[in-house]
Specification:
Layout lengths: L2 E5 L4 H12 L3 E6 L18 E5 L5 H8 L4 E4 L6 H6 L3 H19 L4 E7 L10 E2 L11 H20 L2 E7 L1 E3 L7 H11 L3 E4 L6 E2 L1 E3 H14 L4 E6 L5 E2 H11 L6 E4 L14 E2 L2 H5 L8 H15 L2
Parallel strand pairs: 1-2, 1-4, 2-3, 4-5, 5-7, 6-15, 7-12, 8-11, 9-14
Antiparallel strand pairs: 10-13
Helix pairs in contact: 1-7, 2-4, 4-5, 6-8, 8-10
The protein binds nicotinamide-adenine-dinucleotide (NAD).
Nicotinamide-adenine-dinucleotide binds next to helix 1, helix 4, strand 5 and strand 8.
Length: 314
């Protein structure tokens, strides 16, 4: 049994992680300000032995230091996850990703906690050529402030590992999908179609290609890396080699909602929004070598997630 401190634990991925770690008999402290996370995602654990929820901000250094005391492992998922807004409000990712992560590292140092798992993103690769990107690809030149924030965090974590003896596992996620999801293309399509079942606005030209994988696979992958990698600092792509075209996602969502004759209205251009990377292909050979691989193809993951979300949003 271990005591985990999970930032962003009330969010989509975080709450699934909380379920898993508690089920395996661990203790969990969730630290989350509920800016995009939801109490409903974790309230089934309220009152449960070994579970604690702290509603506080990662930018509140004192609260963070106090809350972290006595935990053994930090699982740092808390961050701004609204990429388009982060490109308009230009200090959103700076504060809620970069400064927040520096605070987490500093609180770890002061509390003498030496293990951290971090959720980075494929966005660090930027507008890379359409080849299967591996962890050694570079130079890393993100094209949105969310990706820039994640890359800055990777640099901070690497430095804290080197200077202060912290051990860290960095996971660069592809698109994670599943129930409790509060953002992303599947979520957006469902909400748009609920408002107008006759017409669907699709950002860009609908031809964007991205890899999607299920949230439970994402958690299995992180646990595999955590249990099997002994490096002081290592980076793993977590995702799948297959990918799904945005138009196909629209068709799957429409099908799962039982709709017919929906007209697609494209906003045009290759990118969905400024800072969108239209083609992302992933190489996951490194984590596969440790014995993990996603159980479903990208198209299957999209369908399963759409089914769950349609049910959840009825
Ligand atoms: P999410 O928005 O559901 O989770 C983020 C959580 O962080 C939320 O619960 C939010 O309330 C919390 N949070 C944000 N700012 C905070 C702050 N200042 N103080 C305290 N809590 C704060 O999104 P998610 O999809 O579950 O993402 C989890 C992590 O995985 C994030 O770091 C995200 O960048 C990363 N990630 C997700 C994906 C994906 O496809 N979902 C892909 C790549 C990386």
């Amino acid at each position: 049994m271990k005591k985990y401190f999970i930032t962003g634990g009330a969010g989509f991925i975080g709450s699934h992680l909380v379920d898993r770690l508690l089920k395996e008999g661990n203790q969990v402290v969730v630290y989350d300000n509920l800016v995009s996370g939801k109490k409903e995602n974790i309230e089934h654990h309220f009152g449960q032995k070994g579970f604690q929820f702290i509603n506080a901000d990662l930018l509140d250094m004192n609260a963070l230091k106090t809350a972290m005391a006595s935990s053994q492992i930090v699982w740092h998922l808390g961050a701004n996850t609204d990429i388009p807004t982060g490109n308009k409000v230009t200090d959103l990712d700076l504060n809620n990703c970069t400064v927040a992560s520096r605070n987490v590292l500093e609180a770890m140092r002061e509390n003498k906690i030496d293990k951290m798992l971090f959720s980075s993103s494929a966005c660090v690769y930027g507008d890379a050529p359409p080849v299967a990107l591996s962890e050694t690809y570079g130079p890393l030149l993100p094209i949105n402030l969310y990706g820039a924030g994640k890359l800055a965090c990777e640099g901070l974590i690497s430095s804290y590992c080197h200077l202060f003896g912290i051990q860290a596992w960095i996971f660069r996620f592809a698109n994670v999908v599943g129930d409790r999801m509060g953002h992303g293309v599947i979520y957006d399509f469902i909400h748009k179609l609920k408002k107008n079942p006759k017409e669907l606005e699709i950002f860009g030209d609908g031809k964007q290609e991205k890899p999607f994988f299920l949230v439970e696979d994402c958690i299995d992958g992180m646990l595999c890396g955590f249990q099997k990698s002994t490096s002081q600092f290592d980076i793993y792509n977590l995702g799948i080699e297959s990918y799904t075209v945005v138009d196909r996602i629209a068709e799957i969502v429409i099908d799962e909602m039982g709709l017919k004759n929906v007209k697609f209205k494209y906003t045009g251009g290759k990118r969905g929004w400024p800072g969108d990377v239209p083609i992302v292909h992933f190489n996951v050979a490194k984590i596969k070598k440790l014995g993990w691989q996603a159980k479903h193809s990208s198209n299957e993951a999209v369908r399963i997630a759409a089914k769950r979300l349609v049910e959840e949003n009825k």
